[in-house]
User: Fold Carotenoid cleavage dioxygenase 8 from Mikania micrantha.
Amino acid sequence: MAFSLSYSTIGNYGSRSSMAAANRGSSDSSSNINDTFGQTIFGKNSKSRESGVARVATDLPLVARPPWKQVATERKLAAWTSVQQDRWEGELVVQGEIPQWLSGTYLRNGPGLWHIGDYHFRHLFDGYATLVRLHFDNGRLTMGHRQVESDAYKAARKNNKLCYREFSEVPKHDNFLEYIGDLANLFSGASLTDNANTGVVQLGDGRVVCLTETIKGSIVINPDNLETLGKFEYSDSLGTLVHSAHPIVTESEFLTLLPDLLNPGYLVVRMEPGSNERKVIGRVECRGGPSPGWVHSFPVTEHYVVVPEMPLRYCAQNLLRAEPTPLYKFEWHPESKGFMHVMCKASGKLVSFIKQHIYNGRVIGVIVDCCEHDANPAILDKLRLQNLRSWSGDDALPDARVGRFKIPLDGSPYGELVDALNPDEHGRGMDMCSINPAYLGKKYRYAYACGAQRPCNFPNTITKIDLEQKKAKNWYEEGSVPSEPFFVARPGAKKEDDGVVISMVSDKNGEGYALMLDTSTFEEIARAKFPYGLPYGLHGCWVPNR
Ligand SMILES: [Fe+2]
Assistant:
């Protein structure tokens, strides 16, 4: 199992990749939206010109190409094509002007290698992790990428075959005994992948960890050169196999959810900086269905943790299958309903659980905004690589919106789910959100996400959502697919949207570039072409200069 994306938050509730909620009406507050290169390039940036081209790495230095042939794809987009080589690093030529204040490193993780030998993976989430690094310094930009050296990746390279269970792929067995051994290892977790291909976070103590939904897929890397340093070993004995791919990480804590597959429920746990020990804040019992729902991400407020229990639930039978089912390791149980559990962070006590229902006129306690897929899990199938690579031009992306959950804390059994804004404002596409991190868990106004310019089969715009005005501004370039727009605030900024968003774009010519938008105007201020197009990436983090 394992895996990722923002798409995971589908449900009667939907949810999102980076949740957010805002505080309204009660004494507590709330959470937030939460789900090519070369010498011919540009160079308006005078610093780049002066220093410039000579320092641009025009050769592809280093490192052995993996023993696999590049996959030919039906589309030119590099987004769905395996990374061309294990690693690369060099300075990019900048077109436009990168603000001098933008100083630090944006790390982005995601699946980037989708084949072993002649065997091709099927699903976007199966790929071996490719880390990309954009280092900003004084208006200049250096890019690097490198594979995360998980046990799953190293074993695949060594044996030239799949050796661990990925999102949809299962190792092939030569005989029945091997099959039985694999099942036994599944129960112990030994055969689950540690392919940390979903996100990357910097802990409060400075350590940088790549993550996926298997707990064993927590891998420490060096943000300066992307070297894999080793496993992040949790020192407690909580014993579960999976966790949320999107922990809430601040300078003072690491919060996450651990679905309990044996006794359906969720543990809410917290880890302090400098520690590897997760301590249990509290436990939520599932209220419906045979197993916990997929919990890819979750929102927090200053005082509460919100635990979404979605009707897209883990399925033991599907976990055991050798071939993927339409919903992979999950099953859709709409009859089991969806729930939002609200837990007090200090006491671990539940203060509310809310069934989905429309109602009017109650006191509102917590607001949670989610990327919401209209109670339709179809997006999982849309993310099969064949679908992504062979798009015919028809409109194939399922509708999504910013769903706003209004959760009363007065004991009322029902909350309300409404549109936070008209979904047509962002083309009825919605995922890969970020906000100004200073507004985490607080009332906020702006979110940045990928929306849609239709027809399309994947989110293809960058959108700035104004939740107060209920409007969106959209960046779009025909045929291109941008990745997560990541917000970085200008130091000393007073306004919530004073900063830049960074994205990596896969363009229609098979190439790619880093894109920087001024978040106030939402206009492009700079771009820098990569030496070659990079595979699509999922989630990232900002590492300030030390
Ligand atoms: Fe995600």
